[in-house]
Structures are given as C-alpha cells and as structure tokens.
Inverse folding.
C-alpha cells in the first residue's frame, strides 16, 4: 500500500500508528494524537493516551493545555480518577508534595475498592454462579490495573 497522509488514514489506524511509533518519534506521535482530538470522531482512548504520554515525556504544560482545551472530551472520556491521576502527574514538577498527596488519596480509593472486591471474592468462593464470580474477579483485576500506575508514580 502506498504511503498516505495522516488525513487519509482512518482514526483507529492513525491512533495505533502514533502509539507504535512513540519511541521512535514522539513529536510525530503527539502531532497525530492531537490531530485526532481536533477531528471528530476520534478513538475514546486518544485523549487518555495523549495525556499519559505527555506526562511520560514530562510535557506537563502541554498536558494542562490539552485538558483545558478539551473540556467536552474530558468529561466524555475520562473518569474522575483518571483526571486526578493525570493532574497529580502534571503537578510533579511544580509541587511534589501536592502531587504525592493527590496520588495518596487516589491510591486509597483504589485500595478500598480492591479490598471490597477481595471481600466479595472470599464471601462468594462457594457460589455456584460462575458468571457472578468471574465478574467479581474481572472487577478486581481492572481496579488493580488502575491502582498499579498510581502506586508506582
């Protein structure tokens, strides 16, 4: 297939190319993800991925700009916990204590949710409804996946 311009690619392909090539060319990947945000419809993950990548590359001013410029997408695609996490990461440079405090609060929310799911698993280990138990385990794993980046930050 001949090379095509970004504008000619579908949004999922452009999003995936940005993620795959982030290590080779972060600026081009950021450009692609920003292009997606400005041109609807974009994959729901585009906003989150852009913000997390900006934080990873310590582009905290750009993180703040994207959050403030995309209020509609922020409220549509980001949970309160994701907003808290990204905001805490972006505060690291200016106020480490405030960032750590925010991360600790978020960590407590996830720890409480993990404990609740763990208790449900223990209380229902003899439950014959395998779908119900599977749902509890999936919830537990999903919360744990959100908790791990918070505690490593």
């Amino acid at each position: 297939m001949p090379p095509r311009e970004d504008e000619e690619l579908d949004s999922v392909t452009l999003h995936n190319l940005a993620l795959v090539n982030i290590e080779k060319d972060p600026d081009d990947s950021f450009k692609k993800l920003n292009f997606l945000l400005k041109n609807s419809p974009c994959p729901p993950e585009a906003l989150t991925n852009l913000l997390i990548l900006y934080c990873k590359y310590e582009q905290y001013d750009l993180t703040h700009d994207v959050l403030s410029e995309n209020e509609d997408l922020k409220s549509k695609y980001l949970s309160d916990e994701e907003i808290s996490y990204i905001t805490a990461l972006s505060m690291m440079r200016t106020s480490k204590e405030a960032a750590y405090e925010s991360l600790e609060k978020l960590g407590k929310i996830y720890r409480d949710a993990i404990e609740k799911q763990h208790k449900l698993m223990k209380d229902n280990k003899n439950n014959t409804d395998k779908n119900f138990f599977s749902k509890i385990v999936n919830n537990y794993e999903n919360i744990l996946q959100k908790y791990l980046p918070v505690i490593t930050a």
